[in-house]
Amino acid sequence: MRSRNRLVALLAAVTMGALTACGPSQSDATDVEQGAGGKQKITVAALPIGSTAALHLGIDKGYFDEEGLEVSVQTIPNPAGAMAALQGDEAQFAYTPSMPMLTAATQGIDLKTVAAADGYPENAYQDWVDSGKKTTPADDTAVLVGEDSPISSPRDLEGKVVAVPARKAQMEITIASEVKQDGGDPSTVKWIALSLQDMIPALQKGRVDAIGEVTPFIEQAKSQGARVISYPGLGTFKEGAVGLWVASSSFIDANPEVIAGFRRAVHKANTYANENLDEAYAKAAEITKIPVKILKAGDPPYWPDSVAVSDLRRAADEMVKLGYLDEVPELEPLVVQ
């Protein structure tokens, strides 16, 4: 119970409010229940966002069955809750962006990366720059302002109220990076934490000056008149895995075959989603309850087929530069190869 409460308090501080219920003991968490036909039962804590479509497609296509895994998806509203579900033994795998994962790891929370959940294609940023930044990049994050807002660039966010899904977490850090790269002072931004669903009404009512959103809420906001001024994820990470599927070291050590099978199934599903976007859009619409027509107004998420230590290093370097981490932690042990 004590370790559970410590995790919830920590993740609430570094990301958003987390779950409060307690699960079984840590020793129980290393055991995998047997399901039908001898399959091993696992629970995955996932967010109701477009990139989760690949996971669901993998389940539908039987990729996890092929690995002897029976998957239950537990929908969690935010990364902090997903990580808390993992550490509270309510799930064996959880979704988290890389930056909250690094923050948690530096505070002694037991998390390791086992597979890629979303990210950017190789050379994505350079290709966008080479195009003169005239195309819509493959970025599932964006900063949006009202249709008539005078804000036109990240630098203009100085002194403004900006809504993010969580304080001192990934969206805030990437927007701060954009402001600094544009010659502004991110320390003057007035951050406010709102749920992804509440951001659009807040922008429309003038409670905030700008919002940091993710797909599919970007497309929903644009359909209601909001205007994109920057793509902070792509501008910060450039390429590679950004969203991650993580597990605890104790579970990883006790279940190497489950980990290997999960990673193979996820990355096979990611490849399928990239190659079958119509199915991915349809599945994303089911998950988010946003019509396919609105989702198709923007680029779909991209699903990498691996996670490299360099992906975490780009995130950690930026966090140190902006003062969100004191130093870059040892990264190699945080990625299961």
Descriptive keywords:
337 residues; alpha/beta; D-Maltodextrin-Binding Protein, domain 2; 5-stranded mixed beta sheet
How would you describe what is shown here?
It is a single chain. With 337 residues, the chain is α/β, with parallel strands linked by helices. The chain contains 16 helices and 11 strands. It has helices at residues 2-14, 26-29, 53-60, 63-66, 79-87, 98-106, 124-130, 170-181, 196-204, 217-223, 232-237, 249-254, 256-275, 277-288, 292-295, 309-322, and strands at residues 33-34, 40-46, 69-75, 93-97, 112-120, 141-145, 161-164, 190-193, 210-214, 227-230, 240-247. Helix 1 packs antiparallel against helix 5 (79-87), helix 3 (53-60) packs across helix 13 and helix 3 crosses helix 14. The chain has 2 domains: 2-121 and 239-334, D-Maltodextrin-Binding Protein, domain 2, CATH 3.40.190; 128-236, D-Maltodextrin-Binding Protein, domain 2. The strands form 2 sheets. Strands 1, 2, 3, 4, 5 and 11 form a 6-stranded mixed sheet that branches. A 5-stranded mixed sheet has the order 8-7-9-6-10, with helices on both faces. It is globular and about 60 Å long. A hairpin with a 5-residue loop joins strand 1 and strand 2 (40-46).
How does the SSE layout of this entry go?
Blueprint: H1 2-14, H2 26-29, E1 33-34, E2 40-46, H3 53-60, H4 63-66, E3 69-75, H5 79-87, E4 93-97, H6 98-106, E5 112-120, H7 124-130, E6 141-145, E7 161-164, H8 170-181, E8 190-193, H9 196-204, E9 210-214, H10 217-223, E10 227-230, H11 232-237, E11 240-247, H12 249-254, H13 256-275, H14 277-288, H15 292-295, H16 309-322
Parallel strand pairs: 2-3, 2-4, 7-8, 7-9
Antiparallel strand pairs: 1-2, 4-11, 5-11, 6-9, 6-10
Helix pairs in contact: 1-5, 3-13, 3-14
